[in-house]
Amino acid sequence: MPELVSTEPATGATLWRGPVGNVDTEIAAARGGWAGWASRPLAYRIEAMRRFANVVRSRSEPFADIIARETGKPLWEARTEVETVVAKVEISISAYAERTSQRRLESPMNARTALRHKPHGVLAVLGPYNFPAHLPNGHIVPALIAGNAVVFKPSEKTPATGAFLVECFHASGVPEDCVRLLIGGPDEGRALASHPDIDGLLFTGSSRTGIALNRQFAETPDKILALEMGGNNPIIVWNTPDLYAAAVLVVQSAFTSAGQRCTAARRLIVERRLAEPLLAEINRLCERLIIGEPHADPAPFMGPVIDNEAADQLTESFLSLSARGGRPLRFMQRLVEGRPFLTPGIIDMSDTPERADVELFGPLLQVFRVDSFDDALAEANNTRYGLSASLISPDPQLYDRFWANIRAGIVNWNRPTNGASSGAPFGGIGLSGNHRPSAYYAADYCAYPVVSAEAEQVRASIGIGLRNQ
Ligand SMILES: NC(=O)C1=CN([C@@H]2O[C@H](COP(=O)(O)OP(=O)(O)OC[C@H]3O[C@@H](n4cnc5c(N)ncnc54)[C@H](O)[C@@H]3O)[C@@H](O)[C@H]2O)C=CC1
Ligand SMILES: O=C(O)CCC(=O)N[C@@H](CCC(=O)O)C(=O)O
Q1: Does the CB atom of residue 263 touch ligand 2 within 6 A?
Q2: Which ligand is nearest to the CA of 253?
Q3: Ligand 2, atom 10: nearest CA belongs to which residue?
Q4: Which of 11, 170, 349, 364 has its CA 20 to 30 A from that of 297?
Q5: Domain that holds residue 280
Q6: How is residue 390 annotated by DSSP?
Q7: What is this structure's pTM?
Q8: Residue 199: phi, psi to the nearest 5?
């Protein structure tokens, strides 16, 4: 039986191994469990989710340890990921009530119109590796509250975290048939996505995969497809007196999680006169960033990227940007022979007319110096993605212009591009999503509305257009 092995990026040690799952078996199990779960009262499902939150809380340290080891992210950051898994439950309960619960609408005499929502059935969830618990959980919890059953395939790079998450659902009394774990890679992902017996797919991952899935789902408009994809996110720094604070926001935006966030800033757009002093501040901060293994003491700011292949691709991308005319401001370097620890790379692309509009998923920031705010906006919008964008400037009028003109689903002011709230909708436009935002709005894609005109008495008359008897 083929096996999947999970390796700790920081050390190369084997963390977990397990057999690749069978797609048909998992879907059949979920199909079997679904009707029973959907017919339970909402209060029952909510109680089950609250028990799940308690189970996760009681296992928070081992959970954070697995996330940290498997992704390489610092332990402090893995702990915040576990906290978001817990917090997701109450947020999703509120979101369900607000966005997809029952309502009675105005209607003519003797009748009523009721709005209710129904679950889709069996939903497939495909997860990414960068938030291997929080992001799939952001689909799974709302899906279960709405009454769906779920087949969850974690990233092939983070199966241990996926298995831990599913075990927490089962330990909290969610029937094993309602949340199924499918271990596997892209092949299993494809088989799951194309299986005739799923009712929809909730995906978080790269735009490349999302586009392939969108194509595949073109033949099945009856199935729900929610795509949360990547970004090529801009951060503009303009007319700000506090360059240190601006530098902190840029560094947090670009290099938190070793740049492995879909909301990470990939492009710094700065007014020309501020560029040198701002970059000097950023450089000084980068010198001080601790890069180390997840459990190191003192705690690192960031760990390695996910694996050596990703690290190789990022260093090659850095070289390719400089070959195309970019001017390296900080070289991206491998810190430890044979392990994927990278130093932040910063490259000035201002004089390069050709822009490669791709998401470089790691600690790599491109810089663009511009002369006017109009140029800054044009540069910021010079992308087919549209996930997050930030303006760093004390000027509210500039923020008004930025807000009105920037094309993104998350538009921030004097805040990092990342760190989005689970209590708000989360999603982007362009290649960043398919207009089915997640987080607070995940409730919307986990259920469909059913409108019923209802009257208890069988009473009817045709008032117009009848001949006398
Ligand atoms: N917008 C958002 O909410 C977020 C987006 N991301 C994006 O995710 C990416 C990083 O995650 P990755 O794991 O590298 O993404 P990925 O697209 O490589 O993989 C995501 C999942 O899809 C599966 N998969 C891969 N190819 C497939 C195919 N052809 N058919 C079906 N399934 C397939 C993988 O096994 C994995 O479970 C980045 O691009 C990042 O921006 C990450 C987190 C949040
Ligand atoms: O999905 C949610 O509950 C909120 C969105 C969220 O957590 N965003 C994070 C991480 C997403 C990523 O970049 O992979 C963020 O904006 O930093």
Answers
A1: yes
A2: 2
A3: 261
A4: 364
A5: 233-413
A6: E
A7: 0.97
A8: -105, 0
